Structures are given as C-alpha cells and as structure tokens.
Amino acid sequence: MKINANELRQGNVLEFRGKLWAVIKAMHITPGKGGAFVQVELRDLTVGTKLNERFRSGETVERVRIDEEDFQFLFGDDESLTFMNQQTFEQIQVPRDLIGESAGFLQDGMKVSMSLYEGNPISVTLPQTVVLEIVEADPVVKGQTASSSYKTGKLSNGMRVQIPPHIEAGTKIVVNTADCTYSERFKG
After folding, report:
1. Is the whole-model pTM more than 0.85?
2. Comparing C-alpha atoms, which of 139, 142, 143 is closest to residue 152?
3. Each residue of 42-66: pLDDT tens digit?
4. Which of 17, 47, 142, 156 has the most crowded Cβ, counting Cβ within 10 A?
C-alpha cells in the first residue's frame, strides 16, 4: 500500500530498498529555505541495522501490512524454536536468533505474539515478565545492605540477574524479559 511520506508514524513497517524496515522515529521538518521533508530513522527487521533516511513530503513509500497472531511455545533446540498457532494449530519453526537472548525466557506452553509478513515470522514478542526461581545467589557482603546494592543471582534458565541482597537461592522472582532485570519477589 503506497502512502505519503508525511503520513509515516513510529511502528509503521516499510518495504524500502528490497528489505523490510520498521519506523523508529519520524520527524516532519520544514526548513526556512527549500521544501519540507520527513526525517525517518529505520531499523531493518531481519538484521537489526539502523538507517536514517529523508523523504520529500510529496514522495510516496510502500507500507506493508503486518499480521499479529497469538502463538504458543512448544519446544526448541540450539538453532530453532517451534511455536503453534492458537487459532489453526499449525506449527511454525523460527530461527533462535530472531528472538535473541530473550529466547532464554521461553517456557513450555508460554503464549507469545508473533508478527508475520506474508506468512513469514519477522518478530516474536514475549510477555513483559516471567516468574523464575533463583538457583544460585552470591553471599551478602557484610555492611553492604544499602538499598542500592545488588548481588548476582543465577536463574533456573541459566541466565544471571542482579538481585537485592535479601533474595536467597530457592526464591521465585519476577523478571522483566526486555532487559533481564529483577522486578519483584513473586507473591504466590
């Protein structure tokens, strides 16, 4: 679908130079001299590289339609992850590097949102938080109990996270999947 460049907004996906790009920022600029233009920061959806591009206001760009569907995580190995579509029960395999380090947070049966372009997965969004158990925690250093001090803890999925000194091994905590940070102690 062709749209005018000055209609670009954050979150739009474009087909540009033979690749798919997500719009990160779009600024409409009217200089004192010359024609108006749109300064756009783009991120390649397959590789993740960034690109800054200028489009004249009257220029048209190709906006693509992205479908969002709910999937359930089934299993994975070192190279690929298998998900099942919640509506059609069709299974789909995606490369592990499409998700990156966040793949470590996937748990059996976890529901995720997948963005698809022409039936091909381009991104997978995990829930904002997951509950995991601390299996190993560094000992508390005496005198280091200020609220800003943290120690390293190892999660049941093998990842490491900075945790408050009062959290011990065997404690379940809530972890943010976006940046692998401690959120709170699990109350359940």
Report:
1. no
2. 139
3. 988 877 789 999 999 889 999 998 8
4. 156
